[in-house]
Amino acid sequence: MIRPPVGLANADSDARLLHGVIEILSAGLDLDGIAQGVADLITETTSTDVCFVHLLDPAGDRLHLRGATPPFDRLARRIELPIGEGISGWVAAHCQPVVITDNKRDDPRYRYIPELRGEEFISMASVPMITRPGDLVGVLNVHTRDRRDFTEADVDLLSSVAGLMAGAIENARLHSRLAEREAAMERFAEQIVLLQETERRRLAGEIHDGISQRIVSLSFHLSAAADAVSSDPASAAEQIARAQELAAGALDETRTAIAGLRPPVLDDLGLAASLESLARSTPLPNVHVDTVSTVLPEHVETAVYRIAQEALQNVMKHASAAHVQLRLSIATGAVLLEISDDGVGFDPANTPERAGPVGYGMPGMQQRAELLGGQLTADSTPGRGTVVRLKIPLPADH
Ligand SMILES: Nc1ncnc2c1ncn2[C@@H]1O[C@H](COP(=O)(O)OP(=O)(O)OP(=O)(O)O)[C@@H](O)[C@H]1O
Ligand SMILES: [Mg+2]
Questions:
Q1: Ligand 1 atom 6: the closest Cα is on which residue?
Q2: Which CATH code, of 3.30.450.40, 3.40.50.720, 3.40.50.300, 2.60.40.420, is assigned to 11-178?
Q3: Domain 264-393 in CATH 3.30.565.10
Q4: How far is the CA of 321 from the centre of ligand 2 (A)?
C-alpha cells in the first residue's frame, strides 16, 4: 500500500493546525493579518506547497486574494476573480469544495492566472469559507507540486479551518464597522459642540457689539433726561426721544440675533416660499427659482435655508454670474438643493484656508450638511461657473 504523504488529515498535524489557527484568530488581527497568518500556517502544517486565501468583497461579487504563502504573499490585494470564474469563483458560487488531483487545465472551470503559476502545481483542494449562519466570506485553496489525492477527511479538515476563519473574519469586519461608526459618532459630537460654540460666539458678538452698546447709550440718555427734566424740559424731551430711538434699535438687533437661530421667514412662509423670497431679495440679475412646497423637520429647513443663503452670498460676492438657478426638490428619502451659476468659477481644491473651524462659508455649509447626515458638494472649474449641491436624508415618515 502506498502511504499518503503526511499532511492534512493526520491526528498530530491536525491538532497543530487547529491550535495554530485558534492562536491566530484569537490574536485579534485585522483581516489581512488573519488571512496571511492562516495561509502560512496551513502550508507549514499540511505538507502542501502553497495556500491562497481569497476573501469576498463587501459588494459580494468578487474574490480578492488577501493572504498567500510566500512568495505569493506579495500578490495580496492584487489578484481578483469575479464570482463564478475559475475554480475559486465556482466554489464561491456553489458553496461546495472542489478537489482536482491532476490535469486541472482540462477542467472547464479552471482559469489560468499567470501570476499564480498554476503550471507548477499538480493537485489542489478548494473549500468555501462559510460562517455558521451560512454566509460566504471567501475561499481557501491549497496546492501541491506533486500529485496528491486529497481525501474526504482532508477536505473536512480544511473546511473546519475555513469555517473558523469565516467566523473570525466576520467578527473582524463587524468590529471595524463598529469602530468606524464610533469614530463617526465622535466626529458628530465634536461638530455639534463646535457648532454650538460658533453660535454662542455669534450671539455673544451681537449682544456685545450691538444690543448692549445701545442699552448703555440708552441709559446715558435717560440719566441726562432725568437730570434735565425740571430745569430744561425741552432738552429732557430730546434725550427721551434719543433713548426711544435706541430702544427701537436694540429691539431690532435683538430680533436679528434671534433670527440668526431660526430665520422667522421659515415659520411665516415655509421653506419653498422663503427660498423664493431669499432669491428675489438678492441683487443678482437673472435668478431662476424652482421649488416644491414641502414641510420638513425644522432643523432641516433651517439648514437648507442657511446653506442657500451662503451659496447665494457666494454667487454675489465671487461669481459675476449672468444667470443663477436655485432648485429645491424632494427625491426618494432626501431633500435636494442645487444652486448653479454661470460665473467665473473657481478651483475647489485650491480655496484659501478659512479662519475658523466652522461657521465660515463653504466649511460651514459642509458641516451643516454633515451634521444632518447629508452631503454638500461644490463643482466648479475656473471660467465655467459653479454648482453647489446639497442632499439631506429625510426621516422615514417623510
Ligand atoms: N459661486 C462661486 N463662484 C466663484 N467662486 C466661488 C463661488 N463660491 C465660492 N467661491 C470661491 O470659494 C471661496 C471660498 O468660499 P467661502 O464661502 O468658503 O469663503 P468666502 O465667501 O470667501 O468668505 P466667507 O463666506 O467666510 O465670508 C471664495 O473665496 C471664492 O473664491
Ligand atoms: Mg462665502
A1: 318
A2: 3.30.450.40
A3: yes
A4: 15
